[in-house]
Amino acid sequence: MFLGIILIICGLLIAVYPPLLSMIVATLLIVLGVISLTIWYNFKKTARKFDDPFMGFFMGP
Q1: What is the pLDDT of residue 51?
Q2: What is the DSSP string of 27-54?
Q3: Deepest of 6, 10, 29, 59, by most Cβ within 10 A of its Cβ?
C-alpha cells in the first residue's frame, strides 16, 4: 500500500513538473550501474578466491 501511494505521488509530481521524469530515469540508471559494478566486483573477487573456471568464464579475465 505504501509503495502504491509513493507511485501515485511520483506520477502526480511528474505530471506537474515533466523534467522530473528525466531526473528519475537518470538516477535509476546511475543506481543500476553502481549495483551492477558492485556485483561484478564481488563475483570477480569470489572467482579469484576459489579459482572457479565457471566464474572466470562468465566474468571475463
Answers
A1: 66
A2: HHHHHHHHHHHHHHHHHHHHHHHHT-HH
A3: 59
Among positive and negative, which fits the CA dihedral 29, 34, 35, 41? positive
Helix %, strand %, coil % of the chain (to 5): 90, 0, 10
CA–CA separation, 21 and 5 (whole Å): 17
Task: Determine the length of the chain.
Answer: 61
Give 18's DSSP letter. T
* Lookup: cell for 33: 550501474
Q: How far apart are CA 51 and CA 42, in angstroms?
A: 14
Record the pTM: 0.59
Helix axis angle, 2-16 to 19-50, nearest 10°: 130
